[in-house]
Design a protein that fits this description.
The chain contains 7 helices and 10 strands. The protein has helices at about 1-20, 60-65, 145-205, 205-225, 240-245, 255-270, 275-305; strands at about 25-30, 30-35, 40-45, 55, 75-80, 90-95, 100-105, 105-110, 110-115, 120.
Length: about 300
């Protein structure tokens, strides 16, 4: 009976000593999860005199012949024993990889052995409801997300407004713009023809061929401009175009009649054609084009003012 009481007393002392190892220990941070780096702090009694701290890592423990603690589910980084006269501390830096209550292996440092230390690792799963993750992170946490979101919304609003405007007025505006563009190209082409023929006269090319090209190109120009077939019209028939050309300010009603009459007379009279006669026709053509372009700009300004 005495032996039983003796062994029970010894067992109680051992259990009390092991459990007492964890008394007063605390975690930094207080609550840790799997993969978090944490520090277990164990307060210890003070020393008689202050000595240097003992730092134990996997490298220096191997060199000093000390077994660095190993655990299947814990990665130990560093163990520090702070020795002070007012109170010492044992700091254990580690990272857990499983949840639940984990018991640390025996730690030997500074001639002392520490056992029975435990830590509790929480799960990212909220324990208040089964298999439901804890609260989600706040939205729009990345810098620039709000600007990007509002920019996309503004882009779609502008796109919708432009689409509505295009179906209401855009097609008419586009049609007028295309007409102006084609008319501008028409005048550019005719001015280029006039300069090319001028250089042909200077080079001494056949003057009747030059007059033929002048008559043909000018008739094509008038056909496109007035939307009337002018390719086979006589000089007298060009008087019919007067109402359409009078829409341009300062346009001479008899210019086309006089121009083609002079041009045809030189082409078909059989007389020698002088360069001076062709230069006069080209000068008249150049002035007529300037008059039409000036009248076109005046007309556009009048339309805008009326609108």
């Amino acid at each position: 009976m005495r032996k039983i009481v003796f062994f029970a007393l010894i067992y109680s002392v051992i259990i009390f000593t092991v459990n007492a190892q964890n008394t007063g220990a605390y975690l930094i941070p207080r609550r840790i999860f799997v993969g978090d780096r944490a520090v277990l702090v164990l307060p210890l009694p003070g020393k008689n005199e202050k000595t240097e701290d003992i730092i134990l890592t996997s490298d220096n423990s191997y060199l000093n012949g000390i077994n660095f603690p190993l655990h299947a589910n814990i990665d130990f980084h560093r163990i520090i024993l702070e020795q002070r006269t007012g109170g010492s501390r044992l700091l254990i830096e580690f990272t857990p990889f499983v949840t639940g209550r984990l018991e640390l292996p025996a730690i030997e440092i500074g001639g002392e052995r520490f056992t029975g230390l435990t830590v509790i690792v929480d799960s990212v799963i909220d324990s208040r409801s089964s298999l439901i993750l804890s609260g989600p992170a706040a939205s729009l946490v990345m810098p620039g997300t709000a600007i990007m979101l509002y920019g996309i919304i503004a882009f779609f609003i502008i796109f919708i407004i432009l689409t509505i405007w295009f179906f209401i007025k855009g097609r008419l505006f586009l049609k007028k713009w295309i007409e102006k563009w084609n008319r501008w190209k028409l005048f550019i082409s005719m001015r280029f023809t006039e300069k090319h023929l001028y250089k042909s006269v200077l080079r001494g090319e056949d003057k009747r061929l030059i007059l033929d090209r002048l008559s043909e190109k000018f008739r094509i120009f008038l056909s496109i401009l007035t939307e009337t077939n002018c390719r086979s019209m006589t000089a007298n028939e060009f008087k019919k175009l007067t109402p359409k050309l009078l829409m341009y300010q300062d346009a001479n009603p008899l210019f086309l009649h006089n121009f083609f009459f002079s041009c045809d007379e030189l082409r078909f009279s059989g007389v020698n054609i002088s360069s001076h006669d062709i230069f006069n026709l080209l000068d008249d053509l150049r002035g007529f084009l300037k008059t039409l372009e000036g009248g076109q700009k005046e007309k556009s300004r009048d339309v805008k003012a009326a609108a």
